[in-house]
Specification:
Strand content: over 45%
Oligomer: single chain
Order of helices and strands: EEEEEEEEHEHEEEE
Helix content: 10-25%
Largest sheet: 4 strands, antiparallel
Strand order of the largest sheet: 5-4-8-9
Number of domains: 2
Distance between the termini: 34 Å
């Protein structure tokens, strides 16, 4: 995973910096990258290849652009949320590939085996009443 930071000085892209990045894994508060230098790309952009990134973990990122910048422009921070992209893709594949069934004012989604239930939605009409006809809204339960 590439992490990119953009730096300016007085609003203009700033080249020639030596920013350093620190990354902490939030699940156990371990610093996995400690003040590593970033690579200058161009026009104020700097990159770090976060090769030790592990899917499913949450990280904080802190980048120090160096003392040539004012404190306002010097520091950058970000959080990488724990999104399991493979799980998300599987969920979408299951929703699209399996059976959809309306029962008792609910839409039920099944995996592609058409047996294993994934999720349910309450179905409502335009007035917010439960319905199986003229559905205007679905609400995940």
């Amino acid at each position: 995973m590439k992490i990119i930071s953009f730096y300016t000085e007085n609003g203009e892209p700033k080249s020639g910096l030596t920013p350093v990045i620190t990354i902490t894994r939030l699940t156990d508060n371990v610093v996995v990258v400690n003040s590593y230098a970033m690579t200058e790309l161009s026009n104020g952009f700097y990159a770090y290849d976060f090769s030790s990134y592990t899917e499913g973990h949450e990280y904080t990122i802190f980048v120090d652009g160096g003392n040539l910048l004012s404190n306002f422009e010097r520091y950058k921070h970000e959080v990488i949320n724990k999104i399991d992209i493979y799980q998300a893709i599987d969920f979408i594949r299951d929703i699209e590939g399996g059976r959809w069934k309306i029962v008792n004012n609910q839409m039920i989604f099944y995996k592609s085996d058409n047996i294993t239930e994934i999720t349910r939605f309450d179905l409502k009409d335009s007035a917010g009443n439960a319905t199986e006809v003229e559905v205007m809204d679905r609400v995940k339960i």
